[in-house]
Amino acid sequence: MSMEEVLTKVRDCVWEVPTSYKKGMRVPGRIFLGDAAIKDLESGAVDQVANVACLPGIQKFSIGLPDIHFGYGFSIGGVGAFSARTGIISPGGVGFDINCGVRMLRTNLTEEDVRPKMKELIGTLFKNVPSGVGSKGKLRLQEGQINDVLNNGAEWAVENGYGWDNDLEYLEENGKMEDANSDKVSEKAKKRGIPQLGSLGSGNHFLEVQKVEEIFDDNVAKTFGIKPGEITVLIHSGSRGCGHQVCSDYLRTMDKAYKRHKVNIPDRQLACAPVDSDEARDYFQAMSAAANYAWANRQMILHWVRESFEQIFHKSAEDMEMNIVYDVAHNIAKKEVHEIKGRDTEVYVHRKGATRAFGPGRKEIPAAYRKVGQPVIIPGTMGTASYLLHGTQAAMEETFGSTAHGAGRKMSRAGAKREFKGEEVQKYLASKGIIIKATSMPIVAEEAPGAYKDVDDVVKTAHDAGISRLVAKMVPLGVAKG
Fold it and tell me: Lowest-pLDDT range, 146-155, 240-249, 353-362, 445-454?
């Protein structure tokens, strides 16, 4: 049976998974895809949307975004909001790379300034920002400092000289979850995190120098400080081994907790605990600490990006106006207030492979952006465009203020390595004027543009569905990969 026969079309780009799809569904599912993409939708991802709809306390809909694909427990590109009174918290709804996210910088440089020095710039970024599997940062934390990082996030980094005071204003949560508690993070997670702070990591993490190629909304672009032809930088990284260990530790805890609390779950990977249980509180505090680690990590990378530009262009970062546009988390759970059945309701929103996309007026948005909604940054692949969008009221009403986070894989990493050769991908990108430097050619093959869905289609669906609106398109000039 085709997906069009299984799902019910609600309106353009919105499909419903009816509660009759699976026994035990408490709410319907909603999947945001165009007519062409629905044909390629994995049945396993639909099953995961339905499974999440079975969890206690879920509100309104279990949601699949335009980059949805099969993941661990929850689909990637998945959102679930659970009552702060009767719901659950699940590590599978956040994922292993807690607060994997992306940060966008703008500059006043142009392609004419940067292109002649691009090879040197990418080489300097690659040298100054440690990258690769298990890569270690340049900083050596003193005993006990890891707790300060976990409790204070990007604030710790700025106080220790890695950035500017006004950077914090343009980070989701200002780079610090107040619920963080380093006492809830295991010693093993801390030991993994200590040497890796200030490093990019591997896989799909990257530093990308881009040019603003097209503006779709002049007013919002002006509000975000984006001008056509100017150079921007994207930083994509997460909480490294620290966050991975936090997830692993608490999956074991939750595997016992859901049985102890008699929570009926359709898939063991959705192991969870009631929000008012010790296990849920401990996980949320530890997850918040790992999220803080990730914000500190991206803050330090930002510092070295600014230093790299200063080395190459012999100007200060201030003179190059290297300001943060915004920093968004992709894998996270947040306690937020949303309108449900006409009443403000406190919920734990799990976003896994999803970007917060709050619309105009929300107090969580920087004051300078509050009239237009928060910036939403959706990176493509190293050979394709990335996009800047803004949050909308429709997202607040339909997706708990969420939208897509990237192109979304269509091929596994192993499959990509069988299909592509790193050297050929590198030559192809060079033919398009894109310089890439990576720790290994297999990594380049894993992250080949052909291993991902078409990001142009993903953002068009998000725009057409109204859950975020296009502001600008950026194209890559050079990439440093882990």
Answer: 445-454
Residue that has been written with the tokens 């725009």 in this structure: 463
pLDDT score of 334 more than 90: yes
205 is an active site residue: no
pLDDT above 70 as % of the chain: 99
Task: List Cα–Cα distances, 82 to 87, 131, 265, 336, in angstroms.
Answer: 5, 36, 14, 10
Give DSSP secondary structure letters for 128-169: HS--STT---S--PPTTHHHHHHHHTHHHHHHTTSS-GGGGG
What is the mean predicted confidence (pLDDT) over 416-442?
90
Question: Which residues, other chains included, contact 267 with Cβ-Cβ below 8 Å and sequence gap of 6+?
Answer: 48, 51, 73
| Distances 35 to 6, 40, 46, 47, 50 between C-alpha atoms, Å | 14, 10, 16, 19, 20
- The structure tokens 């009174």 sit at 85
Q: What does the block give as tokens for 174? A: 């200002």
For residue 158, give the amino acid letter. Answer: V
Q: What DSSP assignment string belongs to 21-64?
A: GSTT-SS-EEE---HHHHTT--HHHHHHHHHHTTSTTB-S-EEE
Closest CA to 239 of 205, 272, 282: 205
Which residue among the candidates 205, 350, 405, 463 is catalytic per the annotation? 405
Dump strand ranges (E) for 55-142: 62-69, 76-83, 88-89, 101-110
User: Rounded to whole angstroms, how far apart are CA atoms 293 and 155?
Assistant: 11
List the structure tokens of 359. 């619309």
Spatial distance between the Cα atoms of 350 and 332, rounded to a whole number of angstroms:
6
Beta strands 469-481; 435-438: pairing state: parallel
Taking alpha carbons only, the member of 242, 394, 241, 234 closest to residue 298 is 234
> Can you tell me the mean pLDDT for 366-370?
97
pTM listed for this prediction: 0.96
pLDDT at 133: 63
Dist CA 37 CA 476 (whole Å): 25
- 444 has pLDDT over 80: yes
Q: Categorize the per-residue pLDDT at 76 as very low, low, confident or very high, splitting at 50, 70 and 90.
A: very high
Place of tokens 């969420």: 402
Confidence label for 252 from pLDDT (cuts 50, 70 and 90):
very high
Which stretches within 165-277 are classed as H helix?
A: 187-193, 218-224, 240-260
State the pLDDT confidence band at 481, using cuts at 50, 70 and 90: confident
User: For the chain, percent helix, then strand, then coil, each to nearest 5?
Assistant: 40, 25, 35
Taking the C-alpha atoms of 160, 165, 169 and 171 in order, what is their torsion angle to the nearest 10 degrees?
-30
417 and 452 Cβ atoms separated by less than 8 Å: no
Q: Give the number of C-alpha atoms closer than 13 A to the C-alpha of residue 419, restricted to the C-beta side.
A: 14
124-143 confidence digits (pLDDT tens): 999 999 876 666 767 788 77
